[in-house]
């Protein structure tokens, strides 16, 4: 990216509140440099002129790019090889109430060694309430470390609670984790996560659609959530109260046609109410990382069934089971007595008795049978 | 029921291991008295003769009926008004591996004031592992008491753990509860539930397909489970390990076309693994009694949505929210500053500011606005 192109993108990133399809349309028609110039001169057409009116005379682009450079970051746009074009498809399918935000980002401010297209190729979003419980944090950490073990990147929002637990566990397992912020990449939010976000930027990726200095605001969290959902193959809500932003991220995932998963929890926990509502509405239940991998992984990458304890009795026929059940632990029963107890004809009990004896499950002495464990 | 008819049914109940469609067919063709006579004489046709061979000479019917009378019980068959004929439909739909047991019962031994048809009209099965946790027992009790408050009977198997918690809570709430046993009604099982089963028999109903004195056996638990599922409009698995009989009851419910529900629990709890497997396989998640009532209740009896906390900000338009978010708590911003912060044209912020002020959410002084909570 040459300097003038970077300056143009930086200007375009700040001059409107993203996402702004009208401006994106102009850029795709005339290019970033020309679009920036037209907006600046108030010659960008009535719609864009109006949208950009309040900010068009602000030009902090040089300062913005200096901050970006100081942080070791980069600007990403659809012109970059690293731009995950496929991740940003599907916005056409979202419900009406989300339509105004349902557009791909135009510019992403990024810091970190991970390449965005590689991340988006194989990532899961782990999201949830800031008011998490120890249970939820454990579940988030367990899933995150299981995912990175299977080379799945963990995308989240950098918030307290579930987000933080997921990022931390991914870092601890030396995996890739991505925090998508609702403010500028130079505005660590929450402030208590300054060190965590710095570590994510060192080892993974910190992303924002907003230029440096932008404060997080309510609507920006919701707009940000669409990027969390879009960058992941599936979104997992780990814990969520009755009213949690995580439900919004889940709605984006659903709108984008990506699987929505939820982790169950105690019905007595307010922090799991939102997960149970999602499950009731059709979200997929996940309890282990490999169940999540099923949804984000390559085709055929299926979770193994839960290990089930087995018993030698599993292999018995129904008749053998009835005969087995009719035998005492002590003493012993004759074949006729076994027939009565099992309700089977006497001639039908001798075969099963012999089989059971062969398998070491029953023993006989003097024409009487009993269980071998007796 | 006259004495000879009762004697015949009691004989038929013991002479084969239920369910026995061949014998049931004979009974429906020639009546109980004649069928009993033919079986006794070995003239019941080759198939029934063979099945009944081991037990046909045993006649403890008079003693059986005396036990029943002493316990204050009654024999129930399809000839009784109380027989819940509709509950025993749907056996044709079960998978092959369950086919041999997929038949309505012929005789039920019953003790208790509740009428079986009334119970079956509006009942839920609450089942689960004997190795329950305090959480599972709480959930079972909570559901049971919520169900009986809504006049739904609680059907279970009388076992330790989840079954016992469900029965006890239903009794404590003065509701109707039904225990279906895998042995004779005079064989309290488990022995530690002798007093509980007596209380169920006093206030609800204790049922068994097996004649007095029959010991519970492994295959009888599985056969019994089909009755638990059949007598309930829906089956709820409250807690179940990876290998629990509750999954068998759930399979019966599914085979009979009744809803299967499961209560979620911590992913860290072995006692919830079976529930999560069921949920993964399509069982419906339930967390509160009124969600269960939806499945067993009359049409239109829907659970209310989980109460969601609300905020005055919920009602704002997107533009109003953006303006609100752009206002400081202290100090104050001019309309132009609000326009820049929100990214909205200056002329579009005055209307929202006025609306927000009318709603008491913002205050203005000397041409500057701030949040009213500041």
TrEMBL record, chains A, B:
Classification via Pfam families? DNA_processg_A, WHD_DprA
Gene Ontology biological process terms from the UniProt entry: DNA-mediated transformation
DprA winged helix domain spans which residues?
308-367
Q: Which InterPro entries match?
A: DprA, DprA_WH, DrpA_SLOG, WH-like_DNA-bd_sf
Q: What residues does the Smf/DprA SLOG domain cover?
A: 95-296
Q: List, alphabetically, the Gene3D superfamilies matched.
A: 3.40.50.450, Winged helix-like DNA-binding domain superfamily/Winged helix DNA-binding domain (1.10.10.10)
- What does the sequence similarity comment in the record state about its family? Belongs to the DprA/Smf family.
User: Matching NCBIfam families, A to Z?
Assistant: dprA
Q: What is this protein called?
A: DNA protecting protein DprA
């Amino acid at each position: 990216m040459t300097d003038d192109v970077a300056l143009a993108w930086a200007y375009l990133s700040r001059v409107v509140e993203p996402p702004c399809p009208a401006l994106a349309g102009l850029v795709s028609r005339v290019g970033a440099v020309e679009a920036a110039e037209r907006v600046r001169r108030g010659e960008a057409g009535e719609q864009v002129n109006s949208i950009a009116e309040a900010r068009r005379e602000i030009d902090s682009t040089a300062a913005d790019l200096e901050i970006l450079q100081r942080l070791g970051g980069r600007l990403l746009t659809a012109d970059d090889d690293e731009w995950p074009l496929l991740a940003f498809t599907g916005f056409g399918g979202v419900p009406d109430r989300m339509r105004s935000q349902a557009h791909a980002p135009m510019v992403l401010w990024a810091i970190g060694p991970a390449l965005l297209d590689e991340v988006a190729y194989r990532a899961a979003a782990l999201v949830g309430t800031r008011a998490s419980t120890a249970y939820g944090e454990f579940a988030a950490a367990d899933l995150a470390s299981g995912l990175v073990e299977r080379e799945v990147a963990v995308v989240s929002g950098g918030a307290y609670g579930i987000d933080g637990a997921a990022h931390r566990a991914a870092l601890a397992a030396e995996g890739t984790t991505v925090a998508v912020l609702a403010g500028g990449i130079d505005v660590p939010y929450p402030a208590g996560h300054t060190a965590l976000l710095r570590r994510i930027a060192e080892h993974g990726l910190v992303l924002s659609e907003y230029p440096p200095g932008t404060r997080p605001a309510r609507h920006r969290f919701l707009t940000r959530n669409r990027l969390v959902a879009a960058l992941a193959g599936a979104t997992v809500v780990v814990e969520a109260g009755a009213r949690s932003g995580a439900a919004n991220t889940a709605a984006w995932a659903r709108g984008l046609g990506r699987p929505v998963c939820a982790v169950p929890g105690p019905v007595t926990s307010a922090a799991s109410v939102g997960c149970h509502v999602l499950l009731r509405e059709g979200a997929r239940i996940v309890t282990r990382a490999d169940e999540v991998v099923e949804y984000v992984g390559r085709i055929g990458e299926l979770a193994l069934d839960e290990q089930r304890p087995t018993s030698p009795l599993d292999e018995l026929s129904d008749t053998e089971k009835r005969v087995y059940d009719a035998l005492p632990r002590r003493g012993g029963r004759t074949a006729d007595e076994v027939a009565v107890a099992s309700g089977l004809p006497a001639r039908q009990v001798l075969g099963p008795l012999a089989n059971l004896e062969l398998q070491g499950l029953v023993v006989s002495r003097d024409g009487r049978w009993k269980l071998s464990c007796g």
